[in-house]
Specification:
- It is a single chain.
- The chain is of the alpha/beta class.
- The protein has one domain: 3-Layer(aba) Sandwich (Rossmann fold).
- The chain is built from six helices and five strands.
- The chain has a five-stranded parallel sheet with strand order 3-2-1-4-5, sandwiched between helices.
- α1 crosses α6.
- The longest helix has 20 residues.
- It is globular and about 45 Å long.
- The termini are far apart.
């Protein structure tokens, strides 16, 4: 069975990708690295919800450090840019790079992300950053467009069935409306 690291931003968005990767015969590890999530209370709610879901379905869960200062430094000068902008690319790059490092440290040669499940995210923008990180570290990035085949709709259904907390913004301070 192939092993993969799944970068995850929250439980609802992770639910369908987890299901799909298992169906595709992957043994997966979920990695929660999201220094962009603001404020800390929101970060903890999302982390705890995902960790509890992973325990429920018997999937290994690991948390990276919550380092908002690293995120703010990465997006410095891009704070006023909107959704799907260069700020988002920088954020994807930061999170995917940490995911790749975690994969390498744990002898796993592939990684992917739940970020593509959202209809509010540009999958090609995410994949571009994934490819850059993969090339930099010599690791495989799997370009799963999880919003295809009703992935987002299925993720929402799984979230409702499991009474998951569903946020109303992407997570960063700049996306709060």
């Amino acid at each position: 069975m192939k092993k993969i690291i799944l970068h995850a931003c929250c439980a609802p968005c992770a639910s369908y990708p987890i299901k799909k990767l298992i169906e595709d015969n992957y043994r997966l590890v979920v990695f929660f690295y999201n220094p962009n999530i603001y404020p800390k209370e929101e970060y903890l709610i999302r982390k705890n919800e995902l960790e509890n879901y992973c325990k429920k379905i018997n999937i290994d869960f690991f948390e990276g450090a919550w380092e908002p200062e690293v995120y703010f430094e990465k997006v410095k000068g891009m704070e006023l840019l909107g959704e799907k902008s260069l700020r988002c690319s920088a954020c994807f790059n930061l999170r995917l790079e940490e995911t790749a490092k975690f994969a390498i440290k744990n002898n796993i040669d592939s990684f992917t992300t739940t970020l593509s499940v959202s209809p509010h995210k540009n999958s090609e923008q995410i994949f571009k950053e994934g490819r850059l990180i993969a090339q930099k570290y010599g690791i495989n990035f799997l370009e799963y467009n999880f919003k295809k085949s009703d992935g987002f709709k299925i993720s929402r259904q799984i979230a409702r069935e499991n009474n998951m907390y569903s946020q109303i913004y992407c997570g960063c301070k700049f996306s709060i409306r």
